[in-house]
Amino acid sequence: MLRSDFTPDEHKAAAAEIKALADEMRSTVTTSDALVAKAIRDTSYDADDRIALARIGGVLKYLERSLEEFITVGETTLAAAQAGKREEARQTSLGFARFAQAFGPDLSQIRHDLSDLTSRSTNTVLGRQRLNAYLSFALFVAACALGLGISAVGSTRVVAGLRQLVASTRAVEVGGDVQPVSIRTRDEVGELAQAFNRMLEELRERDRLKDTFGKFLDPRLVSRLIASGADQAERRNLSIFFSDIKHFTGISEQLTAGTIVNLLNEYFGTIANVIHANRGIIDKYIGDAVMAFWVAPFSAGDDHARDACCAALAQQQAVAVLRSRLPEITGMRRNAPELVIRMGIATGDAVVGTIGSEAARSYTVIGDSVNLASRLEGLNKVYGTLILISEETYRLAQADIEARELDFITVAGKTEPVRIYELMAPAGQLEPAQSELREKFAAVLVAYRKQDWDGALAAIEECLQIAPDDGPAQALLQRIGLLRSDPPGPAWDGIWHHLKK
């Protein structure tokens, strides 16, 4: 129902409000029409959506045409009301009825269509988003798989390279034949492989040096000299060994030069194996003589004396086997030379190390013990023995050997007396006759040192009954004859002075 009591200001405000509303409606319809037209032209929309938009566009065109008439009816009605023409205003307002279809069901249909279109668009967008999400996830999985594959290939190559390095390092550790590792990458593993190959080449060069100089110097000494340097010398307690072939000059006169060399090579090879097997070090070959020594760390602690004695006894056994091959070696089926080896062992302090000039050096031992061992080897000629050892050697090795005391002497070039012993056998392997001979000879020494010449001669006779060719008994027999003719006097200390080397 129209009011009749509007004031002029209220009429003016209502007119302004209606005008603003009309302008807004015009703008909305124009904008909507433009947007719908643009959407219809957009080919990204599917056919159904574009048809729906065209239908909405047609309705908007109709609304746009009806809107001006609708606004005119409203303005006419408002003007009649402002003029006080109430009945005219009422009659004019009845004109709104013909717009009921346009602004009622038609507008509702537009809203419904827009709602459906929006739902479909939203679902399409959501579908595309889900597709994008699926594609992104699939790409992520593919990228991960590709990355993991590349990483697996790279790590496999790295691990393979490291495993090859570990296997080669272990082979080097156990002394196996090792080939240079292949360098497959330029990373840290590749640099490590290069370093390993350089190390391998240095080790091979060192092995070549050891092989070459090992023919001139014991390989164990070569290893120590390479590791610690050539300039080294120290005073150590050790055992020194000398050996010589009995009557070698006479033997060499029977043989050609080639046969002599062949015989010496066989002999040196035989005894070298025995010395090395008993932890000894061959110092040098001097003609037919051999010099060797035993020292820590090759012989542990004081075992050097025992090792030297065991090596001497083993050499005598090896020479006995070699003696049976002399006809084959020398080519002399008859009257083959006799191969007898005399040995001397002394134990004591000596200097061991590299000795010589700047131009030529030798790894050897020097000292009184060396001289004593050499003298003992020569004294075998006097006592008719094969192996003589010093008192200190016997003291350290007595639990492992069988020996008998022979004399209390000074050797040429020394004033300090030393007891000497004949090395007879390994511990527990002395034959009954040898054991009895040792006991009888001990009685000889007791009587001899008391200047009881008759008692000593009687004991010597018993020794010769056991072993007619016993050298020590025969040597003392001759000496007692000299002492009887020229008695040493009551102050005699039992020491016999050997003045010849």
Describe the structure.
With 501 residues, this protein is an alpha+beta fold. The model has no long low-confidence stretch (mean pLDDT 80). Helix 1 (8-41) runs antiparallel to helix 2 and helix 2 (47-82) crosses helix 4 (100-173). Strands 1, 2, 3, 4, 5, 6, 7, 8 and 9 form a 9-stranded mixed β-sheet that branches. The protein has helices spanning 8-41, 47-82, 86-93, 100-173, 188-213, 219-228, 248-254, 257-277, 303-323, 326-330, 368-383, 391-397, 432-449, 453-466, 471-485, and strands at 233-245, 281-286, 289-294, 341-356, 361-366, 387-390, 401-410, 418-426, 496-497. A hairpin with a 2-residue loop joins strand 2 (281-286) and strand 3. Helix content is 62%, strand content 14%. It has 15 helices and 9 strands. The chain is rod-shaped and about 190 Å long.
List the helices and strands and how they pair.
Elements: H1 8-41, H2 47-82, H3 86-93, H4 100-173, H5 188-213, H6 219-228, E1 233-245, H7 248-254, H8 257-277, E2 281-286, E3 289-294, H9 303-323, H10 326-330, E4 341-356, E5 361-366, H11 368-383, E6 387-390, H12 391-397, E7 401-410, E8 418-426, H13 432-449, H14 453-466, H15 471-485, E9 496-497
Parallel strand pairs: 4-6, 7-9
Antiparallel strand pairs: 1-3, 1-4, 2-3, 4-5, 6-8, 7-8
